[in-house]
Amino acid sequence: MASKKVIFTDKAPAPVGPYSQAIQAGQFLYIAGQIPVDPSSGDIIVGDVQKATKQVLDNINVILEDVGYTLQDVVRCRVYLKDMNDFGKMNEIYATFFTEKPPARVAVEVSRLPKDVDVEISAIAWKE
Description:
The protein is α+β, with helices and mostly antiparallel strands and 128 residues long. Helix content is 23%, strand content 29%.
């Protein structure tokens, strides 16, 4: 039976509610939705979806690295956008993180995100 392990790194923003940054269950790593918070300063990036997307994916990457995974291990992402008109700008940055064999993905527009950010991304990774 696979065990469930709570993952926390101070290299990524601390959760702002009753949830974990990530949960490792067997070979899967489930990363909670990350928003564009700079973990070193606590600053939130708003108004520039490309800078925000980069920060979100940097946050996801440090969580992955903390437990020995890489972006290549990501099998699914969910992207939540405040404005679907930002899809192209977000996608330009997203593509620089997932250059080969990109994960399956969902991208949707939502009415509001935590801290009124422009983008939030969650991820699922799997490693043999």
